[in-house]
Amino acid sequence: MKSFKFEAKNLDEAKKIAITELRVNQDFIEVKVLEKKGIISKTLICEATTTVEPTELGYNLLKDMFVNMNIDASIEMRRRNDKEVLYTINTEENPLLIGKAGKTLENIQFYVRNIVNLYSAEKIIVLVDIGGYKDNRKRQLEIIATKTAKDVARSRIEAKLEPMNAYERRIIHTKLSDWRDVSTTSEGENPNRYIVIKPRRR
Questions:
Q1: pLDDT tens digits for range 102-130
Q2: How many domains does the chain have?
Q3: Which end of the chain has the least Cβ crowding within 10 Å, N or C?
Q4: 8 A C-beta contact, residue 98 and residue 116
């Protein structure tokens, strides 16, 4: 949760400052007066704190999203550590929510990640998976990475993979990080950034 200390002339001004600085819903902000300074012209020393746990907010955000879409969804939240959370979703509408090449899923994750981190003092890695799509996609990418790397190591000719998002590129980089015969680099500009697998010099 976020918090910060500041000065204000009165409580109304303190609330306005808190909303402006924290940039979150005022219903989730608590403002405390820590100290009063001055005799004639008083100044308040205040502390504003967000009152909602960021990852719980992400869970409720997904829950409300599916209720509004009239989709019956099972949502599981799992904290992998203090800085990473995974939301696993299953519905009868999995293909619709995943979208072509996972684009809809990527947009849902982007939205939830932004809201969660808006309420968090430290950056949290937010992952959203629907119907095991990401696990399946990871296995596919690792197979592609291995096969392409073998071809590059044998032919000594670099290979360019299809454009991928940062999460998918990281899977490729990680899979081939220990290979002695090839190296990987990301090239191009988003959203068309891609990986090039290159032969290492012998």
A1: 889 999 999 999 999 999 989 999 999 99
A2: 3
A3: C
A4: no
CA 13 – CA 161 distance, rounded (Å): 54
199 — alpha (psi -120 to 50), left (phi > 0) or beta?
A: beta
Instruction: Give the confidence band of 185 by pLDDT, cuts at 50, 70, 90.
Output: very high
Instruction: Retrieve residue 56's tokens.
Output: 């719980």
Whole-angstrom distance, CA of residue 60 vs CA of residue 20: 24
Q: In this structure, what token pair is assigned to residue 137?
A: 């996609």
Residue 170 belongs to domain with CATH number: 3.30.1370.50
Task: Give percent helix, percent strand, percent coil of the chain, each to the nearest 5.
Answer: 45, 30, 25
List the end-to-end C-alpha distance of the chain, in Å, as a whole number: 51
* Residue 52 in tokens: 């909602």
d(CA 176, CA 169): 11
Is residue 149 a contact partner of residue 179, using CB atoms and an 8 Å limit?
yes
The residue assigned the tokens 């399946």 is: 136
The overall pTM is greater than 0.85: no
Do 126 and 92 reside in the same domain of the chain?
A: yes
Residues 88 and 59 in one domain: yes
Spatial separation of the C-alpha atoms in residues 179 and 121, rounded to whole Å: 37
Q: Looking at residue 191, what DSSP letter applies?
A: T
Q: What is the rounded CA–CA span in Å between residue 186 and residue 159?
A: 12
Domain encompassing residue 102 = 54-131
